[in-house]
Amino acid sequence: MPNVYTFKDFEGSSHRILLELVRKHAPRGGSLLDLGAAGGELGSALREQFTRTVGFEYNADCLVDLRGRFDSVVVADLERVKRLPPNVDAIVLADVLEHLRNPAAALRLVREALASDGHAFISVPNIANITTRLGLLFGIFEYRERGILDATHLRFYTLRTIRREVERAGFRILEVRGSSIPIRLILGRFTPEPLLRAMERVLSWVTRLWRSMFAYQIILVAKKA
Fold first, then answer.
1. What pTM, to 2 d.p., does this model score?
2. Which end of the chain has fewer CB atoms at under 10 Å, N or C?
3. Is residue 34 within 8 Å of residue 43, measured between CB atoms?
């Protein structure tokens, strides 16, 4: 499950929302486990909040970058792991579940690894996003190198199905957020920055109003049920 996504820190992005939610819900001085750490930017941004941070990544090519951004780094296939470090305060699964053959098993591992008052932070693409719906309306369903229809995705989630998957794994969902369509990645080279920021603010507002339709990614905060 190689992660080819770059870190996105702009208004309405999933990474900015994840940072906000981890800082809001996770206690200072605890431990962080980032499953699917990619280049380690998320872990690096949160490192001061935690006493110990562990980055977990499938792609061995990321090892050099990760070593400087986490206290410990593990390179392994999550679907072959039998047990995660115990009593973790915060576990991040950002853009991971959709790459797995058995995401339910991964969620059970996360639940077992969490401390009694620990939090899981989960993000997945929303297959019911308006862009995919419009494509289907015109008979278009083309896999791509990244995004909702990334060719490496094995699972597709809507707001309803990811909530059900997480709850069935023994979690109680505390908060649900939606990232907006990343127009900066689409129009950024051709659009003046003030206009781009205004468009991002509008999209963030629309996404909050109708997450199931406009959320590009769904972000959940959960605890053990």
1. 0.91
2. C
3. yes
